[in-house]
Design goal:
By secondary structure, the chain is α+β, with helices and mostly antiparallel strands. It has a domain of 47 residues. The protein is globular. It starts with 31 loop residues before the first helix and ends in a 7-residue tail after the last strand.
Length: 86
């Protein structure tokens, strides 16, 4: 590529892989660079914020966030998991 040095394993996240953030922490195995983009939204959702992007999402307790890696963009669907075990 013109601007990027070759990287053998730049992103190993496979389509359909699921991660669960507990206490707004980065999930094990999640890419630290992607968490920089995703983490703030995960924290906002965990703290009860909803309806991001003026109603674009069908589920108001969700968000579609893309990794900030311009060479290998990956999108993540975030949604709140209601925990009724209390």
């Amino acid at each position: 590529m013109k601007y990027e040095n070759p990287i053998l394993h730049a992103c190993d996240i496979l389509l359909g892989t699921e991660f669960i953030s507990i206490n707004c922490e980065m999930p094990e195995g999640f890419c630290a660079s992607a968490w920089e983009s995703v983490g703030p939204y995960a924290k906002r959702l965990a703290n009860g914020e909803e309806n991001f992007f003026d109603g674009w999402m069908k589920n108001k307790k969700s968000a579609m966030i893309s990794c900030n890696d311009g060479f290998r963009p990956v999108s993540f669907y975030l949604e709140v998991i209601d925990d009724d075990r209390d």
